[in-house]
Design brief:
heterodimer, A: mainly alpha, two-stranded parallel sheet, 7 helices, 2 strands, B: alpha+beta, 4-stranded antiparallel beta sheet, two-stranded parallel ribbon, about 15% strand
């Protein structure tokens, strides 16, 4: 695999933190925001810091900080377990709207993750592992998603909400 | 969506990579949404060119080689891309596939307007002098060894890119590359939170 595995960073930051730690801690409360702001202060360029939404978020302390946006809100568990339920998404939208803070979302469809994502990620290789992963109980099957979708749409209509998910199968020709 | 204030963005990896690259990338190419067919990639690029896409943003995920070189179930989703965003788009300009005005809009003017970032996204009196100088006649091969991120790899290895020769942040030089020797120098850490300016 030619990925040029020789970058100057070589997988480590100057401050000794590993890159994956850009996810840790999630910026879901004021203290986490302050921690990231202290790191960002050592920057060559101007920057903004998002506030995050998870089940554990603390909007009160978070909105006291100068948020760039509320984002990136995960509408599915594409990164760790950071996907949120529709009612929490609605709550977050209302909180953001009340404070005139923009919202960005990962508009992903969890019902398409398993089969489609794994096929696409690996180009049809690793089929044995794909079957094993799809079979894991904490992953939704396509049938499960099909059953959940009408219920979700009814809730969305009652709430007057836009359906923010994007169906990748129909989004481009 | 057109009746709301919602806007959309696409990533460089969905503009410049397709399922044809998935075999080469293996678990390094794991991302969500996943890479799609070359036909779909071309359709997304067409929408960028035609003005339907508001922003190109990286969804930069600086996972290391060790993190990505795992079993599928353990490899995290996402790829690094912040340093190769401009070079890839400007290379498209050089090849005549994209206008310079579209690049300006999707990486500077539109984000500044959408997020109401004061002083950014425009070259005009009173605005911040955040400028980048490039030589559209001088593309270079993208090599992880020449990049500065912490990841140590790039999914765009081997593609051509038009890299900055000089960058200023609020009028101060933040980066400069000697056109003869290729030596690089960096300015002071003057970065500010744009919401506190």
């Amino acid at each position: 695999v030619d990925l040029g595995l020789a970058g100057r960073g070589r997988g480590r930051r100057d401050d000794g933190r590993r890159p994956a730690e850009h996810l840790t801690p999630p910026t879901v409360d004021g203290d986490a925001f302050d921690e990231k702001a202290a790191l960002a202060a050592d920057s060559l360029v101007d920057y903004g810091i998002n506030g995050g939404v998870t089940a554990d978020w603390d909007p009160e302390s978070l909105f006291e900080r100068p948020l760039f946006a509320l984002g990136e809100v995960f509408l599915a568990d594409s990164t760790g377990d950071m996907g949120i339920a529709l009612d929490l998404f609605e709550e977050a939208l209302a909180e953001a709207a009340a404070r005139d803070v923009p919202v960005t979302v990962h508009a992903e469809d969890e019902t398409l993750f398993d089969e489609s994502a794994l096929d696409g990620d690996l180009g049809g290789r690793h089929r044995r592992e794909r079957r094993r992963v799809v079979g894991l109980p904490n992953r939704r099957s396509g049938d499960c998603g099909d059953r959940a979708r009408p219920r979700r749409r009814r809730r969305e209509r009652r709430a007057g909400a836009y359906r923010a998910h994007v169906d990748a199968r129909g989004s481009t020709p | 969506v057109s009746d709301t204030d919602a806007t959309c963005e696409v990533t460089p990896h969905h503009l410049f990579l397709s399922r044809e690259d998935a075999g080469r990338l293996g678990t390094f190419g794991r991302m969500n949404p996943p890479l799609r067919s070359e036909e779909r990639r071309a359709a997304v690029f067409e929408r960028l060119r035609d003005g339907d896409v508001d922003v190109v943003a990286t969804d930069h995920a600086p996972h290391t080689v060790a993190e990505k070189r795992q079993r599928l179930v353990d490899a995290p989703s996402g790829v690094p891309g912040v340093e190769t965003l401009y070079p890839l788009l400007l290379e498209s300009v050089r090849k005549g596939n994209l206008s310079l005005e579209r690049v300006r809009d999707v990486v500077a003017a539109n984000p500044a307007s959408i997020f109401e970032i004061e002083g950014k996204g425009r070259i005009e009196p009173g605005a911040d002098a955040d400028l980048v100088v490039v030589d559209l006649t001088n593309p270079r091969e993208i090599e992880a060894g020449a990049l500065h991120g912490a990841s140590g790899w790039t999914p765009f290895e081997g593609l051509q890119g038009v890299f900055p020769e000089l960058t200023t942040v609020r009028g101060k030089i933040a980066y400069e590359r000697d056109p003869v020797t290729g030596a690089e120098s960096f300015g002071e850490t003057v970065g500010r939170n744009v919401r506190e300016s």
